Amino acid sequence: MQRNLINKLRPLLRQQSPIKMSEAGGAKITPKMANLQKKFQEDNDKPVFLKGGGMDNILFILTLVLCVVGVVGDVLLWFSYILA
């Protein structure tokens, strides 16, 4: 069964050839992008989601606080249903 399906799909797959970057003109990296790559790839014992600076730290802490508030609210809701 699988062979029949593969044999039917094989001609369709051959019609589409992948586009190579060299054919598409290549990828040009701007100096700003090169600096960002250097900043995020350096080994400074920070996780990648905190390498963006102060705003990343604020967003990370806000995300943690909102997750804790949501879990506590959910637990309180379930306990209010159980104890009622």
TrEMBL record:
The keyword Transmembrane helix applies. Keywords: Membrane, Mitochondrion, Mitochondrion inner membrane, Transit peptide, Transmembrane, Transmembrane helix. It is found in: Mitochondrion inner membrane. Its main location: mitochondrion. SUPFAM superfamilies: Mitochondrial cytochrome c oxidase subunit VIIa. The chain crosses the membrane at residues 58-83. One of its GO terms (biological process) is regulation of oxidative phosphorylation. GO terms for cellular component: mitochondrial inner membrane; respiratory chain complex IV. Belongs to the cytochrome c oxidase VIIa family. This is Cytochrome c oxidase subunit 7A1, mitochondrial isoform X2.
